[in-house]
Amino acid sequence: QKEVEQDPGPLSVPEGAIVSLNCTYSNSAFQYFMWYRQYSRKGPELLMYTYSSGNKEDGRFTAQVDKSSKYISLFIRDSQPSDSATYLCAHTQGGSEKLVFGKGMKLTVNP
Amino acid sequence: DGGITQSPKYLFRKEGQNVTLSCEQNLNHDAMYWYRQDPGQGLRLIYYSQIVNDFQKGDIAEGYSVSREKKESFPLTVTSAQKNPTAFYLCASVDGGVSSYNEQFFGPGTRLTVL
After folding, report:
1. Which segments within B26-73 are labelled E, that is strand?
2. Is the dihedral of CA B39, A111, A78, A12 positive or negative?
3. Gap between the Cα atoms of B64 and B78, Å rounded
4. What is the pLDDT of residues B66-108, one digit of tens each?
């Protein structure tokens, strides 16, 4: 079983839709959970991170971690064409900076 | 402005050639990383270095080599032993720290194509 599983999509939605992106992981030692956004031909940039279980909200974005089921989610409300990008989940145990990435989900928001 | 620079942006290599990708950061970060990204594969770790003059192999180190002679620089050499080097290469750095999360900052990437 891979450490991180992420459906690579692609996913296409109309503008204004609510988007749900998900990852599952197998290593229960993971403590930090991140979502990176990567525009085409650019380096990834950190969108959000959470520690342990719970929700974290930042504007139209909500990150959710359920450690009991080893499941993390990113919700995008009122999606915009500018949200069109690849979204990568990543996890780390914390003490080590090594990140484990999912494959990335390519999202297209159509105007 | 602080950040990570990678050069060149595009690189073409003939089969059998070694090429070196540059990564420089002025963030005063301790740790630096090299990733390879292929379509549908996510980011895979090639090498990483947590301090100067020390580095460790990542998950796909075969056919690659690195050096870390200066804190701000972490060049990656793609050798002729790497059989399928065409990919997007990303360099990252992190401030370090012992027990807390530290954000990895990424450079803009180098797209390597083998002709």
Report:
1. 31-38, 42-51, 54-57, 64-66
2. negative
3. 5
4. 999 999 999 999 998 888 999 999 999 987 654 456 778 899 9
- Sole residue written with tokens 């870390």: B68
Interface test with B, best of A32, A98, A105, A106 (most B CBs within 10 A): A98
First to last CA, chain B: 35
Between positions 41 and 60 of B, the ones with CB within 8 A of A are: 41-45, 48, 50
Closest CA to A89 of A29, A56, A49: A49
What the block records as the tokens of B52 is: 């100067």
Residue A46: name the closest of A92, A108, A90 by CA.
Answer: A90
Q: Is A92 in Cβ contact with B96 (below 8 Å)?
A: no
Length of chain B counted residue by residue: 115
State how far the Cα of A43 lies from the Cα of A18, in Å rounded to an integer. Answer: 25
CB B58 within 8 A of CB B48: yes
Contact: B97, A97; criterion CB under 8 Å: yes
Peptide linkage before B108 cis (omega within 30 of 0): no
Give A23-57 pLDDT, tens digit per residue.
999 888 778 889 999 999 899 999 998 887 889 99
pLDDT at B13 over 70: yes
Nearest to B40 among A42, A97, A103 (CB): A103
